[in-house]
Amino acid sequence: MGIVTVTIRSLSFVSNEVANHYTQGSLGDRIEAGLKQTVADNSAVTIDDLAPVDEFHIGGRSASVHLFDQLNLSPEDKVLDVGAGIGGTARFVAQTYGSDVTGIDLTPEFCEVADRLSNLVGLGDKVNVIEGSALDMPFEDDSFSVAYMMHVGMNIEDKTALYKEIRRVLKPGGILAVYDVLQGPNFEQITFPVPWATVPETSFLATADEMQKHLRNAGYSIDSVADRTEFAKEFFAAIIPPPGGTPPPLGIHLIIGNEAPTKLKNMVVNINAGLCGPWEIIARK
User: Fold this and answer.
1) Cα separation of 145 and 171, whole Å?
2) From residue 98, how far is each of 31, 88, 92, 193 by CA, in Å?
3) How far from 59 is each of 53, 106, 176, CA to CA, in Å?
4) Measured between alpha carbons, how far is residue 259 from residues 58, 196, 199 in Å?
């Protein structure tokens, strides 16, 4: 695996509230228990077997394919996953495009599970997820050719600072791909809790125009912007179980925790009402 030089930097920006929101306890054990119910041979688990739980963003694998097929990734790319979660998207990128992926996440349990699952599917030498803050990353300048964020900015208020820090570690001409939930009209009517925030105080959605302004203020040029809200509506219509239905052994409910039905229901209601929705933005240093 390509080595990215790491320096010791302060993690004073780490938000305990956000980390606690995502910490469930015994997540790795619960995922492996789900695998025992869905995979015939647990000694030969693949990223496809993990897909139902692995990519914790609206649209899952299909959303990842749609975004990353636009980036022309190759084995030569050194890729940064900002807010890597349990590493599902990083494993998809490593497996599909051959790139080495370094992830960073401020939730210790996610980092532990990410490494555990990467080793389980034989990608431990291609994917490495470390604990840390996206606002103060322990990487040298100009370390990565591509960076991406999948549903991360919703928890970070100072987006210009976030994008500046990512730009610092991108090589000249490097790409930043963002897939985030953005604010729609009448956003103040949004219902909580949602998957990214239990209370409004830890939710920091921006509009599409504001996102582009933050990126330009951080020194990027914008390559493309795409509203994926209709895609999200179709995705949730297909996966939300009927009332009283039993969730599958593997799914994002394992990550969201006991409030999963309420959080998912609220998100679907909010998206269908036009209060928020996912967007893609591809920018360049």
Assistant:
1) 5
2) 25, 15, 9, 37
3) 12, 23, 20
4) 17, 12, 13
- C-alpha span between 265 and 236 (Å, rounded): 9
* ∠ Cα 15 187 272 (to 5°): 110
What's the CA gap between 77 and 75, in Å, rounded?
Answer: 6
What are 68's two structure tokens?
């990353």
Residue 16 to residue 37: CA distance in whole angstroms: 34
Q: What is the pLDDT of residue 239?
A: 73
Distance CA 103, CA 131 (A): 9
Residue 98 is predicted with a pLDDT of 98
Q: How far apart are CA 170 and CA 88, in angstroms?
A: 22
CA distance 156 to 170: 20
Q: For the chain, how many residues are written? A: 285
Q: Give the torsion through C-alpha atoms of 107, 259, 194, 15, to 10 deg.
A: -30
Enter the tokens of residue 130.
């470390």
Confidence at residue 236, expressed as pLDDT on a 0 to 100 scale:
86
Query: Domain limits of the chain?
Result: 16-284
pLDDT for 248 equals: 84
CATH superfamily of 16-284: Vaccinia Virus protein VP39 (3.40.50.150)
pTM: 0.88
**How far is it, in rounded angstroms, from Cα 121 to Cα 18?**
28
User: Which residues does 78 contact at the CB level (< 8 Å), separation at least 6?
Assistant: 2, 4, 99, 100, 102, 143, 144, 145, 146
Residue spans of the chain under pLDDT 70: 1-25, 240-245
Phi, psi of 79 (to 5 degrees): -115, 140
* Predicted local confidence at residue 35, as pLDDT: 93
pLDDT of residue 7: 34
H/E element holding 51?
A: helix 47-54
